[in-house]
Amino acid sequence: MSIRISLDAPPEFYTNLDFISGRVILVLHKTENIGNVIVKLEGESRTALTVPSPGDRDDYYHARPPGGVMGGDVITENHKILYKVFQVYPDDGASIAFQPGMHEFKFNFKMPLNNICYDEKAMSGLLGLGGIGGSSGFRTMDGTKQLMLQHVKSTLPPSLTGFPQEAEIRYYLKVTIQRPGFFKENWRYQVGFKFLPIEPPRPAKTSQEAFARRPFTFRPRAPTHHRKSFFGNKSPGPGAEDPSQMPPNIEMSARVPFPSILTCNEPLPLRIIARKLAPTTTREQQVYVTALELKLIGYTQVRVENLENTEVTAFPIFSAARLSPPIALFSSPSDPVDTEFEIPRSLWAERRLPNTVAPSFRTCNLARRYELQIMITLSWGTPPSGSSISLASGKQPLAQTITLPLKLSNVEVFSGIAPPQELLNSINHNANGDIVGAGIGPGFGIGGPHIRPPHLPQRPTGQNAPNQQGPSQPQRPPHDPLYPPQLGTPANAQFDEAPPSYDEAMADQLAGPAARPAYSGVTAENAPSTMPAQKS
Fold it and tell me: How many CB atoms lie within 10 A of CB 445?
C-alpha cells in the first residue's frame, strides 16, 4: 500500500483566492475495504514559551499564565487559522472493497482571505460536523478547544519558520483513508506547501516622505600655525586660528515615501540626503562618505497565553565597509548653507529585499513588524591608506571619522502580490476614509477586523409603509406585549435564506493573482515540525 498527493501544476507558493486541486493516489497490493476518503486543507500558527522561574530576579515580575504551571514548564498555543474538509469518497456513505491496483480521488479547494479561528460559529460547528465521530462517519477537529483561546480576525499569515521550539506557521494538505474494522488503523498522509498572502490595497501615492535625520559636527582641529621650540619640535602658536580647521556641520537624513511601505523582493525606495548647516571656505573642510550599510530589522512577537517574547532578525540589504573612491558630499566649498546633496541611489538600486523576508502580518499568537536601519560612516579628510604622515609636513595626521545611525521605525513590508481588480472595486470607503468590506489586514499594527456594513432591507411601500407624519399615524391594533409584531412586516411575508458572507461571495467570483514575487519563507515545508508536543 502507498499513498501520495499529486497537486495540479503547483506554483512556488499559493496565495489567497488560489485554487488548490489535485489527486489522492492510492496503490493497493491486495483487496481492501475502504470507507471514507477525506482530504483536509489546514493551516496552523503554533507558539511555545517557557514559564520564567520565580528564582530568576530579572523574570520574577513577568506575567505568568493562569493555571498550575511552574517555572521552567513549556506551554504551547496552537491556532487553526485554516481548516477545510473535502470528502472525496464515497458519495453515498457506503464502503466497498477496492481491488489491487492504482486508485485516484480528485479534490479541489480554494484559499480564503481571512483566518477561520476567530469565527465562533465555524469553530463550534466543527464539533457538530464530526467531533469524535458524527453522522459523516469520520473524525474532524474539535473546534471547542479554539473557543478558549484569544483570536483576532486578519488576513491569513505567510508561512514562517526559523524559530525552533518557539514559533512556526505551516500550511498542508492531509488525507485520511478510513478502513472499517475494530483492529484496523486508518491510513494518513500529508504534504506541506508555502503560502504568501496578497497585499492590502495600497494608499494613493503622494509627495510626502517619512524621514529620520541626525545633525552632527566634527571635533575642532588644532591650529596649523606653529613655532619652533628649543628641541626642534613644532608646537601651536598662541592665538592662532585657521578657517580651514573649523569643523564642518552637516545634517544627514534618510527618506522613504509616506506611508513607509517596502515590497518583498523589490529594491528600497530610499533616499539619503546631506544638508549643509554651516558655511565652509576651503577644500580642507570637505566631508566624504566612506562606508554605508542598509539593514532591515524584523521583530517577531511571540505570544502564548499572557507570556510574550520578541525575536529580532536582521536582513542585510547593502553593505560597503569601504567605498572606493569615497563620495564627496558637496561639489564646492562655496555652496551656501542649506544646500542638499543626495547620495547616488545607484549604490543600492539593484539590491532587492531578500526572498526570506516575510510581509508584515498579525495573527492570533504571532506578529511581525520591521524597521529600516541605515549606518553611514563619514570622514573629514581622506588621507591615503597605508601612508604615514609626519608632523613635520604640517598636515593633520589622521582624518576624523564618525558613524551615524538612522532608523525608520514604522515600516510596513507588503508581499508584492496585488489583489485582483474586482476585489479592489468592491471595497467601499466610509466617511472617515477607513477601508471596509474587504476584511484584509495589511499587517502588524494596521487593519484588523473590517466589517462590511449590513445590506439595508427594502423599505415597504403601500399600505405596509409606516406613516412619516407622527401625529396622523393610525392607531395600532392591540397585541400581546410579550410578542410584539414587527413593524411593516406583512403577515404572509416570505423570508429567503441568509445571503452568503462577503468572503464567501468574493471567493466564488475571483481567482488568485497571476503575478507573484520569489519567496522562500519556509526552507523545507515538508520537514518535520520543530515545535514541542502540545499538552492536552
Answer: 13
